[in-house]
Design brief:
globular; homodimer; alpha/beta; Mannose-6P_isomerase_type2 (chains A, B); 4-stranded mixed β-sheet; about 350 residues; about 30% helix
Chain lengths: ~350, ~350
């Protein structure tokens, strides 16, 4: 147990749920499903079941420090690592690995996004426990592969090879979002799993892989040896972190590394990456409406999402398959089928009205 | 000029424009057309061109006193008559007539709603001037009849008889909102005009008619003779006004009185009694959207009304022929074709959430 660490990545900012999530309060900080806990808090609840609380780290952007402290009061300040700049997941995970290794050179770590939904926490707990045992024993990178139930084109896919160790398969290929036909072939073949972005590995294993595949990141962090885990760490990070390449761990390491294994998992996972996914996972009224927070008087409205502030009264008529989000200073009304256009709207808003509304 | 008075009725409260207009700030107090002046202020501007400002009275409910004072700072407190209760137009006009007669027994008065739109003010000025001359000369009630340009079913119609005096026709019948077929017959006959609710008469003429047709109102106000125009007036009104029957001047007097004349007028009038009328009279974008106050980013939106607060950004996609109104605590989204259902929604809101949102 002492060697188990968790890194919760919660510095992301997406515009797909704008204006429900905004730059000042991204998705992971929202009570997305009306449970009373934000997605970040749900992530914390899930991992604190498995990993000692003092071994949990939250990696976030420094501007979200107040939000993380407010939402995760269980973490002490030195468990919240504040990125001085946005550099995608590879530098983030590299820092976390160097930091943890300085504290415990035998550590194994679970890397978890903070904005996903996992419904079956007992299955998750069992998977993580077995996965951490695996990466404690073998110098391999392990990724959680979700059993696909449909030809989803919004996810990355992992192809599993024949070689198995302790029931985990060696990864053959990673494929980013395929088109529908290809996704169908993938799912039907039985050889593919969805890439959940949940990773497990020993700190030394990942640091070795970073050296091999992204040496510029490794060399930069190597300069800080002796500083990680000390009071000199933040000054070092402030200087070096922004100089790291902006690159994802998938692209920088996972897709290049030969020793990646996948653990097939089926714990009711969704990355909640779209309004469609949010709609699908949410409880609905008899007429198929998802109502988040607000009061409603609806007539002839079917299969919509209504999200607004607690005190808002939404009176709507004749809307079908729409997203209606009302924030203090923004109202979005958009067909669910056009949700991919929301990013365009955000760009247009930015061009016309500046950052004020983002 | 000294004998000319104007009574602006601004105590009404309608729910047809809810939540754009609400009980706390009904339609007449709103800058409906984005001109910078409310409908009440536009009414004041229009009549103060014709009638001495000191002879203009605003009749309103006592709860709207602060709004009237704020919007019409030109009026002194004794020009704002505050109704202690809602009793429709007959008691309101009776009070105004008794009040004015006490000040000037030779007065003629123009009675004007405060929530209508009149586009051609010069024509209006000319009509009112000629109308006031007419009622100064003859003991007749005069009503402004608008030249109809379509078989509108939302208006009342006035049938004009053959008898004419000074170019004004004696009224034959009043007909409340006809059905479409009947309205067509009315318009094609050339004998009918729309009832604008704008009246002109001598104070003695209207008080005589009230005696004849609604004696209970007349007798009640007669008890206050000697008090009108004095400091005793309000105490008297507080006691007697609420005891008056709740009845309109049309029903109580106009439809019963034989000596009613109509002045045909064509000054670009609309009672702005519906979102459809509002839409029709408002400036539109290239794609036919009416945008009141708010900022917008629109995609595939045609022929909608968007009304919100100045600072609100409305981002909408794929809406056609909708009314979208965003108020602080209420959001309404409703097809323009279903605007008559808004009253139902208001009732439902009231039943479910109380008066808070009205």
């Amino acid at each position: 147990m002492e060697n188990r660490y968790c890194v919760i990545m919660c510095g992301g900012i997406g515009s797909r749920f704008w204006p429900f999530s905004k730059a000042a309060r991204p998705k992971q900080f929202l009570d997305f499903f009306g449970t009373g806990r934000s997605l970040l808090q749900m992530t914390y609840d899930r991992v604190s079941n498995i990993i000692p609380v003092r071994n949990i780290l939250a990696m976030t952007n420094e501007k979200y420090a107040p939000l993380v402290k407010e939402q995760l009061p269980e973490l002490s300040d030195d468990q919240i690592l504040l990125e001085p700049d946005r550099r995608n997941t590879a530098p983030c995970i590299a820092w976390a690995a160097y930091h943890i290794r300085a504290i415990n050179p035998n550590a194994v770590m679970l890397v978890s996004p903070s904005d996903h939904l996992i419904l079956r926490e007992d299955v998750f707990k069992d998977c993580v426990t077995r996965g951490l045992d695996f990466v404690a024993r073998y110098p391999y990178l392990l990724t959680m592969g979700i059993q696909p139930n449909r030809p989803e084109t919004g996810y990355g896919y992992i192809q599993m090879g024949k070689e198995e160790i302790d029931g985990f398969s060696r990864v053959k290929t990673f494929t980013e979002k395929p088109d529908f036909e290809l996704a169908k072939v993938f799912v039907e073949s039985g050889e593919f799993a969805w890439n959940s972005g949940i990773f497990l590995w020993g700190v030394n294993t990942i640091i070795d892989s970073i050296h091999e595949h992204v040496p510029d990141i490794a060399m930069r962090f190597d300069k800080g040896l002796g500083k990680f885990g000390t009071e000199k760490e933040m000054a070092f990070i402030k200087k070096e972190f922004p100089a790291c390449p902006n690159i994802s761990i998938d692209y920088a390491v996972m897709e290049k590394e030969k020793n990646v294994f996948v653990q097939r998992a089926d714990f009711g996972w969704s990355d909640v990456g779209s309004w469609g996914a949010f709609y699908e996972k949410s409880p609905k009224t008899e007429t198929g409406n998802v109502i988040r927070n607000c009061k409603t008087v609806l007539s002839g409205c079917e299969n919509n999402i209504f999200a607004a502030k607690q005190e808002k009264l939404v009176v709507a008529s004749g809307l079908k398959d729409y997203i209606v989000v009302d924030d203090d200073d923004i109202l979005l009304i958009c067909p669910l089928s056009e949700e991919q256009k929301i990013k365009q709207y955000v760009n247009e808003v930015k061009a016309n009205f500046g950052d004020e509304y983002l």
